[in-house]
Amino acid sequence: MPLKEKEITEPVQLCLADGMLNPESIGWARKPIIRSNLRGQFLRKKKWNYWCVFGRDALFSATISNLDYATVCFVYYLDYETKAFNEKTIIRPFDTKTHMPENVQETVEVTHKDMHLSFIENNKETLIKVSANDFHGEYLEADIAVSYPDDLDTLNVVVPWSETRFQFTAKHHCLPAKGRFTVGEKTYTFHPETDFAVLDYGRGIWPYESTWNWGIASGKQHGDIIGLNLGGKWTDGTGSTENAVILNGTLHKISEELNFSFDRDDYMKDWLVTSPSGNVELTFTPFFERVAKTDLKIIRSEVHQMVGHYNGAIKLDDGKTITFNNFLGCIEDHYAKW
Question: What is the pTM of this model?
Fold first, then answer.
């Protein structure tokens, strides 16, 4: 049976005055009208802004996150053809200087001796700027402008585990990207007619141990601009999902829990993403695996993020069926003790 998810149409605060979950915020919205006014719950607050930009030749990603006990930032890129890949992480333990804003479209910035990152809000644009003098032996610089079309729906969801454990997740797809990033002697460019960015903005009070799957894609196919957001495990049993398709600016909510089927012994094998109703039938075929591991005993994280292509079909809430043919995107399996 489909879930009965409430659509939120008026601005609302995520938390009550005492820091507990505001019941009125539970649901989903087409605009980022939920304010993530987190407070208290030291060591359990998790905040991040993750950007992923899909270009014709390469993928570029940058993240600023604060886990209460540290600010962690990471940047990576992938050249699709050569499989050239590099990633750099910086950590600021017990950082009290980095401001993680309560609204989705607000500026966040981190300056570190090894890398500078800034996501600057500027009149319906986000300017992604990154620089690092030693990015695995090469100079890296990124200057990318991501625009928000006026008529674009975005996915904004509150996931309630309990009144003290909850997450506001904003997944913004189909954001036209222009600009470039340079690594050493190589420069990659983005063009707004063909290249799109995805924002994952998260603010919440998390349990100590968590597992999740997440699939994304944003691009053009057969003249349509399509965004795909698929989630699993972490939302199961909450009555909320982060599942949706954005078709030419209009969001179609998928109010079903999805099943992610894959081989943990070989993540490069095909993944299957399906729904109980049969409305979602997708195969994801990877061509690259990004592995990121942290093991500090009490803090542990392991992510296997695959880059590849979606094939299959999704039947929308209005009865229309979208067919995916080698549609570029990512999918991941993530485990965290944090």
Answer: 0.97
